[in-house]
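Thanks for the sequence, V.! I ran Electron transport complex subunit RsxC right away. Repeating your input here for the record:
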Amino acid sequence: PTATKLKGGLRGVKTLIINAAECEPYITADDRLMQDYAAEVLEGSRILAWVLQAEQVLIGIEDNKPEAIAALKQALGSERDLHIRV
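Predicted structure:
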C-alpha cells in the first residue's frame, strides 16, 4: 500500500520513481489517466516529492503508450523538475 511505502520514505529519498507502467498487458486505466489528467499526475508527483524531500523524480512509462507520453511531456512543458523516462 502507498501509505506504508511513504512511511519508509519519511527519512528522505534521493530518487522518487513513479511507476507509470500498466500492471497487466490489456489494462489501459493508467494510460487513459495520464492522457486525460497529465497535469494532475505531475502535480501529484510533485506533492510526493515534496513530502519525501526527494532530490529527483523519475516517471517511468512504457514505450507503447505514445499518447500518454505526449500528454505528460506537454503538461510538463519547459519545467525540468520531473524527468520522464521511456
